[in-house]
Amino acid sequence: MTDLTRLSAAALAEKLSAGDVSSVEATQAHLDRISAVDGDIHAFLHVSDHALEVASDIDRRRAAGESLGALAGVPLAIKDVLVTTDMPSTSGSKILEGYMSPYDATVVARARAAGLVPLGKTNMDEFAMGSSTEHSAYGPTRNPWDLDRIPGGSGGGSAAAVASFEAPLALGSDTGGSIRQPAHVTGTVGLKPTYGGVSRYGAIALASSLDQVGPVTRTVLDSGLLHDVIGGHDINDSTSLAHAWPSFAAAAREGASGEVLKGLRIGVIKELPDSGFQAGVSESFRAALAAMEAQGAEIVEISAPHFEYGVAAYYLILPAEASSNLAKFDSVRFGLRVDVPGGTVEDVMAATRDAGFGDEVKRRIILGTYALSAGYYDAYYGSAQKVRTLIQRDFDAAFASVDVIATPSAPTTAFKLGEKIDDPLQMYLNDVTTIPANLAGVPGISIPSGLAAEDGLPVGIQFLAPAHEDARLYRVGAALEALLVDSWGGPLLDRAPVLGSNGGSR
Ligand code: GLN
């Protein structure tokens, strides 16, 4: 019998609509898989008690002849940054331990309305600050390719859940790379939409001018299918775009033929320092470009002189916005309250925030408060905003001569747990290729490009397109995916060590 957890969401959806399997069976298979492997992986902070009930309702509606969405009955993992009414939402923080939201994030509401079955909430770096999921207040997630290694971050839980076949689909959020970098290190597909393309309503805010919600999947088509469900204008998000988006699933299907590669102009940034990249990452990147070139794509050297200042600008803008967004965790309105007998209101707030926030969150609040303080505002925050504008102009200039920009999705493959935890700067440098897209608001996708020769771990290639051109990423991503999967003789994840065959690790 087919192992339902190994199917893509698209293939599972077909079986569901053909009546070959029920959503209860598909959901149960994933719950069983979670029981078998999540003790090792720790992708989930909470597994839903209602998943089978929801699945059985979908089965009943299907049997009654109701017309259901393309992904109806397919299980979905949800990053804990997204609030849900039926499961706690902690954003990976102790300050929100056990917090129940009175409303669903728009993307969750849309997923439910489309008949997807929420399986649980996934682990993440506290308030989405990090690149390894080690900053979660609930313990780290492990990479299914090697349990001693990180699954990326901040959305390591979503990526690891999808990579270890605990869920066919997951939702993530990407403020500086938290969808794309975990995809890179786990051999999965992650897409950050155009800023404003997917609602941020109910996504616990990290940095509001950078945050975007998006899909985490095993295939480009699955990403398009999920994006079609969650995307589009939302009156509850003032930065949501009123734009007529095409079907991203249709774009992915269209791209798979490879036709799009003929004459496609792919920009490669000449200033990206080769030296900062692991050899196997650079090799995999160049091999993917060569494969596309062989199909008629043109590789064009472009200049993006300000990208190298992206990390510095981001780590001023992000803490500034985060320090302001996190001010609401004041012991009065949400979550934790630490009582200080005989203390003032300020004493209670200080004790609560001291106990409730982890070190990385405190570091960023302090950095952000400093960057915004009188006398320093122009020198730090003001300068960073100018750099942001220069990066946006670099993109505008580049997209005048190329259709997409390609970069490796991150500088190295998955590093070991503990390796960078005491070195914030090294941790921040993971985001060197992902951050510019957030600063400019343009869409980016990471898809697997292969395994690094030296360590056999997954590598991702990132494509960036102009704002509103997410569909182009689906076409190009699906074209390259088809080429590569063909050359590998099957999906990259088929080569991952098999977890849980006897209930334990590899
Ligand atoms: N690693 C980045 C950071 O720590 C990315 C965060 C994100 O995208 N949520 O800020």
Please give a structural write-up.
The structure is a single chain. This protein is an alpha/beta fold. It has one domain (4-304, 394-495): Amidase signature (AS) domain (Amidase signature (AS) enzymes). The protein has 16 helices and 11 strands. It has helices at 9-18, 23-41, 51-63, 106-113, 156-163, 180-186, 220-230, 248-255, 279-294, 310-325, 345-356, 359-371, 378-399, 424-428, 435-440, 470-488; strands at 44-47, 75-79, 117-122, 169-174, 189-192, 212-217, 265-269, 298-302, 404-408, 444-451, 458-464. The chain has an 11-stranded mixed beta sheet with strand order 1-3-2-4-6-5-10-11-9-7-8, with helices on both faces. It is globular and about 65 Å long. The model is unreliable at 502-506 (pLDDT under 50). The structure holds glutamine. Glutamine binds at residues 128-131, 154, 173-178, 206, 318, 431.
Give a quick summary of the entry.
It catalyses: L-glutamyl-tRNA(Gln) + L-glutamine + ATP + H2O = L-glutaminyl-tRNA(Gln) + L-glutamate + ADP + phosphate + H(+). The active site is at 79 (charge relay system), 154 (charge relay system), 178 (acyl-ester intermediate). This protein is α/β, with parallel strands linked by helices and 506 residues long.
